[in-house]
Amino acid sequence: MEGADGMTGFGLDDLPLRDELRGKSPYGAPQLDVPVQLNTNENPYELPEPLVRRIAERVAEAARTLNRYPDRDAVELRTELAAYLTRTGKHPVGKENVWAANGSNEVLQQLLQAFGGPGRTAIGFEPSYSMHALIARGTGTGWISGPRREDFTIDVAAARRAIAEHAPDVVFITSPNNPTGTAVDAGTVLALYEAAQAAKPSLVVVDEAYVEFSHRDSLLPLIEGRPNLVVSRTMSKAFGAAGLRLGYLAAHPAVVDAVQLVRLPYHLSAVTQATALAALEHTDTLLGYVEQLKAERDRLVAELRAIGYEVTESDANFVQFGRFEDSHTAWQRILDQGVLVRDNGVPGWLRVTAGTPQENDAFLEAVRALKKEQQA
Ligand SMILES: *Cc1c(COP(=O)(O)O)cnc(C)c1O
Asked: Which of 170, 203, 338, 366 maximizes the CB count within 10 A of its CB?
């Protein structure tokens, strides 16, 4: 193909790219225009009208002073996030415990910039959130794929052995885990934390992107007295604000000092801060949607089992189901019926996000038809 600059056949690999990025592809869930999109764990509910108006007000206010850089330390926002965590996490935290960035992916990137990097390594227990490995790669951090059991729970003894063997600088524990939906208990986190401190010591990051959907309490209280433990959160899922790009962490204040060494100055725009503050004013309404989604998630689990699928126990707003001889073909057959689910590359399994009751009905109809087809 000829580019605008007339250089034929020039591609990515001809650039003086870092070696570890050669031949790699970017993160990408397909963004296909189909009627029912249940593939990226988004919240299906649009923001309620009163919140939309409140965002407009707060953004208008912020717009007047866009000639100035935003509050570099996002103090008001961190104060409100701390209040939310204190109220819902059964553990008191203050703004000095909280840090915010453009999505929890940026929070995780800042953590790896500060605690990972060239010559250092991070471990995750896979299958898990693919971005952990990608952010590791992007920050020059070596990646270690740790084990999970056949049923996708974490085998504590095996995980401790992997930590002792590799002595990673950063340990990721995703709870509830994506794409499996599996949550871990406090005992597991404590056992892995202990192993990680004995081996290095290293930073343990508990990614709680889906915790509001869980049957279990948040692991937030575990940060008490454990300065190397970080809990990361996001407004992308429970708050129904994936488009906002707002993630945050809670940890010892020293961790907050550490990420400030690597964050870009003024990384969080005044518009983002204003929008997030407006959303936090409507927390109760938004958590009401979460209750509906939890009920729909439980319904998906029950109905998928009734149809004859295997389902992994889920504490998130999605469900992993199978098994398929060829999950990609199954994914395509569901898509042919207008329903987009996710093929995460876990052999035999697919993942569906809990949508509105109507969307979930459409999905269930599609997988019922698929089951009949496969039995015929
Ligand atoms: C969706 C998701 C996130 C959220 O990323 P944002 O950048 O906040 O949108 C983080 N961790 C996991 C495990 C996720 O699935």
From this structure: 170
Task: Name the percent of the chain in helix, strand, coil, to the closest 5.
Answer: 45, 15, 40
In a domain, 18, yes or no: no
User: Which is the closest atom of ligand 1 to the Cα of 128?
Assistant: 13
Structure tokens at 152: 């996708």
Q: Is 234 in the pocket of ligand 1 (CB under 6 A)?
A: yes
Q: Give me the residues of the chain with pLDDT under 70, please.
A: 1-6
Instruction: Look at ligand 1, atom 10, and give the residue with the nearest C-alpha.
Output: 209
Atom of ligand 1 nearest to the CA of 177: 13
Angle 259-260-265 from CA coordinates, rounded to 5°: 130
* 3-state SS assignment for residue 111: helix
The answer to whether residues 119 and 235 belong to one domain is: yes
Q: What is the pLDDT of residue 13?
A: 85
pLDDT at 4: 58
Q: Whose CA is nearest to atom 1 of ligand 1?
A: 209
Helix (H, G, I), strand (E, B) or coil at 55: helix
Q: Count of domains in the chain?
A: 2
Residue 174 Cβ inside 6 Å of ligand 1? The answer reads yes
Of the residues 106, 110, 131, 319, which should be mutated to test ligand 1's pocket, given the most ligand atoms within 8 Å of the CB? 131
Residue 33 lies in a domain: yes
**What tokens appear for 16 in the block?**
């003086």
**Is residue 265 one of the residues assigned to a domain?**
yes
- Which residues pair with residue 125 across a beta bridge? 146
Domain of 342, in residue numbers: 29-48+285-375
Q: Supply the pTM of this predicted model.
A: 0.95
74 C-alpha vs ligand 1 centroid, how far in Å?
21
Q: In what order do the strands lie in the sheet with 170-174?
A: 98-101, 247-250, 229-234, 203-207, 170-174, 121-125, 142-146
What integer pLDDT is reported at residue 90 of this predicted model?
Answer: 86
Give the model's pLDDT for residue 32: 87
